[in-house]
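G., the chain you wanted modeled:
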Amino acid sequence: MIEANEDAFEKFRKSKIDIVFNVAECLNGTSREAQIPAMLDMLKIPYTGSDPLTLTTCLDKARTKEVLSYYKIPTSKFLLVNSINELKNFNLEFPVIIKPLAEGSSKGIFNSSFINNINDLENNLSQLINDYKQPFLVEEFLPGREFTVALIGNDDELEVLPIIELNLNELPKELAPIYSYEAKWVVDTKENPLNIFSCPANISNNLEIQIKDIAKETFKVLRCKDWCRIDIRLDENDLPNVIEVNPLPGILPDPDDNSCFPKAARTAGMNYEEMINRVLFTAAKRYNLI
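Predicted structure as tokens:
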């Protein structure tokens, strides 16, 4: 184990490492998930997962949506706001969701982030931009079902694991129909886990094909490698839209934790060790180590 801090570079440089299994998120800046892979690239040490460009792009939610839009992959209409003065050109339809530009694990996405009018939008954004010291994304709310899709592989061997549905209508009535910080970290505990996940999702063959196709295309255009988890939500016409891309997915090992990538892997017949090794050998093959 090597901690992802300022001492990591020298430890990598002095160690005889065949390949690194990268789960490092680091601490500072929008580039934080790219910092360890950049060190490893400089030292010509192979590692699992995506490269610095993809990791930085996907942590920047607005840049991700710009790439998706360029490739005509459906994603909700959005506005990037650095200050409330930029709301003068607001042209989205309510309700909207607001989220910090470069955070993960629902950080900065609260129950109050589901907003129905311009006054609440201005008041919330003013406070949150000040608190988080970063721009915020304002997105039109997609009213349909929500899914998350785990993928392992590369190119023609890219495999979509069983799709997970987040049954947000099962959330406590006081919570908005989004997977907010409160839903993920306050209401959902190991002692009293939220029973909102279905894997495999109960969906039609046609919808399953649509979701798998959009997940694979997203993986491709953002140049993801080895593995990824992609969040998808249906719009008012039941068409899948990409809402977030996670090229460095969370992988809590305890089945009692609602960690979606391991949940999909277990449904596919892999235990935790097999899932880890599957990702590892996918990367090793990409580097021609096996």
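The domain at 78-140 is CATH 3.30.1490 (Dna Ligase; domain 1).

Shout if anything looks off.
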